[in-house]
UniProtKB/TrEMBL annotation:
It comes from Mucisphaera calidilacus. Belongs to the GSP E family. CDD domains: FHA, PulE-GspE-like. Keywords: ATP-binding, Nucleotide-binding. This is Type II secretion system protein E. One of its GO terms (cellular component) is plasma membrane. GO terms for molecular function: ATP binding; ATP hydrolysis activity. PANTHER family: COMG OPERON PROTEIN 1, TYPE II SECRETION SYSTEM PROTEIN GSPE-RELATED. InterPro entries: AAA+_ATPase, FHA_dom, P-loop_NTPase, SMAD_FHA_dom_sf, T2SS/T4SS_dom. Residues 23-72 form the FHA domain.
Length: 560
């Protein structure tokens, strides 16, 4: 039977194996799939198996059930097709596309259960033995990109930079060996899949392990409570974190030494209902771009950014929400600079990747080393280029502007929806209009979109309404591609990510609009007259070229 993939508004993915019975979806507990989506009705919609696939029927919901932009009362959906109810997205997946990256055994009313390849290997009860646990998490050694070594060759480096020899741990108690093996497999899985975060979440009697891959949370397995606790204790030992204080927020770091590279892990323990949750941010230098060419900017935007980076003074701003790749773009720009002839100083919170030849300074709130105070200090260090990890307050904004206006090249990031709103944000922070107009050289807004899995993507006709949504780049297109889902992409239909950009170089029209304190629409109009391309146009080009899907562009650019 097909699998129903459920994607929540915050990107959490769950999958449920459908059977021959009708499935109701909504907020009420009597639904076979009950979801806590406040935009969904108590009994929102239903799926019923028919010869042609499944019949989707709206149950008179308040906000409707949609396929694409079309609200439906009744429609036929087949594997590979998607629909939306409330703020939740659903997609039917062919049974051959099941993936190891799903958790088994999470029951739902009516017997509908979360489904994944290794369900049979999952512990039958919460208190399964460590040996049983390793059977299911072992799937991490098979998925993703093949490596020419196995997990046993991964070494661990503690917070002091000391290598912890595997032989020392292997001689210890069986629980310690199990913990070591679990941690190695998790690290190995991150190296294979390119995961950005590891989540280890106690659920009461068992522990859920999830990875964030390409921005989406993928459930891996449920661990035995004892095995997970032993592994988390090992992480604390490596980070030199107090093992006893479980009711406190604890942070640390460690490294893993792989045969081909080292990976840094930023560790956070937070007290939750059933214990402590572990989240590890994966900082893999292999994913750091070698330069601007690795960003796949359109040629015109690439050339403009290169010219701005080559200047001796001014300010380059990169904007977008959290997780949009701003820091990655910042590092790519830095790699274009010659640190041998320019003194480059960075202020970061925290330092994510070590770059040769740069002076990198971490923010430390406990010592009152804030962005603004470190920025003033570094300006006395004879810098040519100053990188401020993020502009968060008025003091930092004004000081950074002054630096860019007095012979330094300043690069920074800021939270803003688009290029034009970045300028308005600076004004809101108290920067004088003349300073913004004279100092800012270029603003680059960006978002990350998932790229279609090349193994399973499917071609579909480009409809008139699709062309209307995508605009000029799709004017002559007859086909587009959509996500399907297979083992290689963990059933998501996507593999990897790419940024879409909106670049606004400053020109006289934009400067005049700022000086006159005109509205955001007036500033945008001035920018458009000299070639500003909205981000949606870059996204439309990726859709037409089969790199991503229309649904993905809608998801990412809907709030812009």
């Amino acid at each position: 039977m097909p699998i129903l993939e459920v994607i929540s508004e915050d990107g959490v993915v769950r999958r449920f194996e459908l059977d021959s019975e009708k499935v109701t979806i909504g907020r009420h507990a009597d639904n076979r799939i009950k979801l806590d989506d406040h935009r969904m009705s108590r009994f929102h919609c239903e799926l019923a198996p028919i010869a042609e696939g499944y019949q989707l029927r709206d149950l008179g919901s308040s906000n409707g059930t949609r396929i694409g932009e079309q609200a439906i009362n009744k429609a036929i959906v087949r594997p590979g097709q998607a629909f939306v109810a409330g703020r939740t997205r659903f997609r039917l997946i062919d049974p051959d596309a099941r993936t190891a990256a799903s958790v088994g055994g999470a029951g739902f009313p009516g017997g509908l259960a979360a489904q994944g390849t290794h369900v049979a290997e999952a512990p039958p009860q919460p208190k399964a033995s460590p040996a049983g646990t390793l059977g299911s998490i072992k799937a991490l050694t098979k998925i993703g990109r093949p490596l020419n070594y196995d997990e046993s060759r991964i070494g661990l480096i503690n917070a002091r930079g000391q290598t912890v020899h595997a032989a020392e741990l292997d001689k210890q108690h069986e629980d310690a060996r199990t913990a070591l093996h679990l941690l190695r497999i998790l690290i190995y899985g991150c190296a294979r899949t390119g995961a950005s975060d590891i989540h280890v979440e106690p659920k009461g009697g068992s522990v859920l392990v999830r990875l964030r891959i390409d921005g989406t949370m993928i459930s891996i397995t449920q661990l035995d409570d004892n095995a997970a606790r032993q592994m988390m204790s090992l992480v604390k030992v490596l980070c030199e974190i107090d093992l006893v204080k479980r009711a406190e927020i604890q942070e640390g770091h460690l490294k893993a030494e792989l045969p081909d590279r080292k990976i840094d892990f930023r560790i956070s323990f937070t007290p939750v209902q059933f214990g402590q949750k572990l989240v590890a941010r994966v900082l893999d230098s292999n994913r750091c771009p070698a330069g601007l060419d690795d960003l796949h900017l359109p040629q015109r935007e690439n050339d403009a950014l290169r010219r701005a980076v080559a200047r001796e003074s001014g300010m380059i701003l990169i904007c977008g929400p959290t997780g949009s790749g701003k820091t990655t773009t910042l590092y790519a720009a830095l790699r274009e600079l010659d640190a041998g002839i320019r003194n480059i100083v960075t202020i970061e919170d925290p330092v994510e990747y070590e770059l040769q030849g740069l002076t990198q300074t971490p923010v430390n709130a406990e010592r009152d080393h804030t962005f603004s105070k470190l920025l003033r200090s570094c300006l006395r260090q004879d810098p040519d280029v100053v990188v401020v990890g993020e502009i968060r307050d008025s003091d930092t904004a004004v000081t950074a502007m002054q630096a860019g206006n007095t012979g330094h090249l300043v690069l920074s990031t800021i939270h803003a929806q688009n290029a034009v709103s970045t300028l308005v944000r600076l004004l809101d922070l108290g920067v004088e209009p003349y300073m913004v107009a004279s100092t800012v050289t270029l603003v680059l807004a960006q978002r990350l979109v998932r790229t279609l899995c090349p193994r399973c993507r499917r071609q579909t006709p480009m409809r008139d309404e699709d062309i209307a949504r995508l605009g000029q780049p799709a004017a002559n297109a007859t086909q587009r591609w959509e996500a399907v889902g297979c083992r290689g992409c963990y059933g998501t239909g996507y593999q990897g990510r790419r940024a879409i950009f909106e670049l606004m170089p400053m020109n006289d029209g934009v400067r005049d609009a700022i000086m006159d304190r005109l509205s955001m629409s007036a500033i945008k109009q001035a920018a458009m007259e000299t070639g500003l391309r909205p981000m949606i146009e870059h996204g439309a080009e990726l859709v037409v070229n089969g790199i991503t899907s229309l649904d993905e562009i809608d998801r990412v650019t809907g709030s812009i």
